[in-house]
Specification:
Number of strands: 0
Largest sheet: none
Distance between the termini: 50 Å
Number of domains: 1
Number of helices: 5
Length: 139
Amino acid sequence: MEEAILFIGVFLIVFLLYYFRLVRKELNKDKPKKPKKILKKRKKKKEKESNKDLPIEIEYLVVRYKIDLTKIPYKKFLYVIALVSSFDIALLVTIVSFINGFILQLLASFVLAIVLILVSFHLIGTYFKKVEKGKKKDV
């Protein structure tokens, strides 16, 4: 029972942080900007800084899965990222709380965090890539 309360508490706290940091901030902007391709090191610093308009989660998904932000429901995209990231962190905290020993907790949390983030962002990317392809056929 204590683990369920821990999971729900961490999930709600992290989701609220994501909501105010990611979702609300992005929805207050006019339109989502399409990130430019990753620039080579030879380019000027001004051009590199133009990609910093988007949060890193969105930029990773757009670059890795080539998602066009204009062809997907952007608000839903933001909420899904916030929910999945909150779930990942809450699950990580809950699993690591079962492990005894500080060093083992650190090692387990590091490995689990990488695995959880890669798997969950892969699922998000493939889902929204299918949503984007579905929108293309309708147009």
